[in-house]
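Hello K.,

You asked for the raw outputs rather than the summary table, so here they are, unedited. I folded two proteins back to back in the same session to keep the settings identical. This is the first:
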Amino acid sequence: MSLFNTLMASAIALAPRALIRKISRRYIAGDTVADAIERVAALNAAGFAATVDVLGETTESLSQADATTREYLKVLEAIAREGLRANISVKPTALGLLLDEAHCERNLERLLDAAKVYSIFVRMDMEDASCTQREIDLLLRLKRRGYGNVGLVLQAYLKRTDADIASLLGARENLRICKGIYVEDHEHLVERAWQDRRAINPHFLRHVASCFESGTFVGVATHDEELVDEVIALARRRQVPHAAFEFQMLLGVRESLRDRLFKEGYAVRIYVPYGRDWYGYSMRRIKENPRIAGYLLRALLTR
């Protein structure tokens, strides 16, 4: 991690909110469900699927968790009403995981029941390492109760993912593999992951290969073009059909790569966050990964 990015993270934290707001508009759909639906419709028209995220992670009260659940129910209804190619991505902590696991589980069940009616998939986002086991256990409990419209995210930079993925593979399963963005103690991470993000790539590829071998649908979530090309080469060698995987990218990031993949015939899903917590979201991303600070500064200077 460069000293420049670390310094930029500190500097941007002092920047005026109006400046952060201006920069964030490219990466956040807006404040409301309507804003998100408008952006998703535009992405669909351009050939891209979407996954919608209501901003706001760890909640401070169960009433706040319930409000987030109701907001997601509105998103599901709007996706179905407009006939959009979209699903939702949900952070369990936003539904109360750290306050009351049983309450969080009930909130997730409400979403899964509604999503099933609309034939919409629900992605459980993975959070920091302190939540990993809880979120895997939560998914497995939901699966045992017959919920087939839910899948998890696994982070390739965690050592434990080799063991975790084994219990989650299957022909009817659906996983997202990402590198991982949270700042973690080195003891949790694969060798050199804290020094060089490219050190994660072999682990990422191995997990994608496991999905290919087991018939598990996999969302390949990365903006690393070298890694994208390696996934494509792997799929070709193993004759994996395009329908067995998709690439997933953040709204407003590496749009040239997004467009290239679409032109080459690959499915691409865009992560569309929205909500009034745009400032908190932006600052958390910078704190969790100072590289984003350098990216935001470059975006500002080239606008």
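The second followed immediately with the same parameters:
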Amino acid sequence: MAKGNKANHRRFGNVRKLPSGRFQASYLGPDGRRRNAPETYERKGDAERALTLIEAQLISGEWTDPERGKIKLKDYAETWITQRPGLRPRTVDLYTWTLKKHITPYLGGVTLGKLSTAMIRQWRAELLAKGVSISLAAKAYRLLRAVLMTATDEDRILTRNPCRIRGADVEHAEERPVLSVAQVLELADRIGRRPVGNIRAIKDGYRIRFQRHGEMRTYPEVFATRAEAERALWQLPDTDTKQDGRFRAFILLATFASLRWGEITALTRADIDLRRATVAIRQAYTERSTGAMVLGPPKSQAGTRVVGIPRAILPALREHLATYVKADQDALAFPGAKGGPMRRSGFNRASGWSEAVRVLGVPNLHFHDLRHTGNMFAAESGAGLKDLMARMGHDNVRAAIIYQHKVKGADKAITDAIDRHIISSDDEDDDGSGAVVVPIA
């Protein structure tokens, strides 16, 4: 450690009086460079106490270079994201969006050394006050905490992580709809059904032409926007319809095999084994914010799995493969309109998803809710947690490694139970009103 000024009899560091009358503390860092304390002091004793604290930090190894703490959070966080090569492309997009949308506008210009728990508490309060959901605020908080944890533990820029707000990282479970089997079957039969007609742009807005009983007609009302005209066309009564049959098996398999969007859109003909009634999940598509479609491994190691298919839906799959899928074994099982991977936006538009779920009575249904519904059916089979985790491709890698090879018999039992559920529901007179809302983690 540096020896103190003999006149001041200090063992560590120096204190000098500035022309302003305030006192400045300085010391030699581990690299031999002299540094000033981050602030000046009104009293000499305060400056000496600051030096005592700095000396203790040097001895304990907790000292951080104040110069390095001058980097702005925005710059550090952006670099942090780029230095994590193991992140999935969609995770990179999510982190980048969260940083730009919810963190940088508030804290991006603050240097790391100036960040405090009080400042972060205020930032979170402002997010919530502006209508950001608790769950989204929790995601932003966890990202910020991870960034600052690296600044604390690895880069030693901070002595402690200022993200210390109890409960700020907790998301509130959102209630999502779960369909009955009858509703799943109805959705599969209705999906892809579109009214026969068109929308024309005219001088005053948009006009609808539609077909009823084989005759084209013009709707008398003119709509201000194309979106309004589109909604009206879908809701006209007794309009002739046509149906794109590509999506029926898509809905059935996504639900009853509990598949994620990226998993089912990456399936090839070779992945679907009709004889064994199984589907192999080996890869998944991710759509980047740039629009690029990236093919990679499933979401986690546990996501690579073989799942049983209820035999009640095999005829729909067999018809789909024969009608819509190329003969090559590596041909996509559920391609988009142009033969490439199916995009969510293209699916929503071509399938008439919004209108289909509105008629079904669950207008807020998301595609991922089909997987959630399938998971609930599997749970109702009485299977244990470990068996369910393997079927669902749960993110717990350790559980997947230990139990994946044991689950074949259990998965067949789950599949058979779902199969019986489908058959029994199909035989009943069900008005489709059995959907329930349950929380998901």
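The mean pLDDT is 85.

Happy to rerun anything if the numbers look odd on your end.

Regards,
P.
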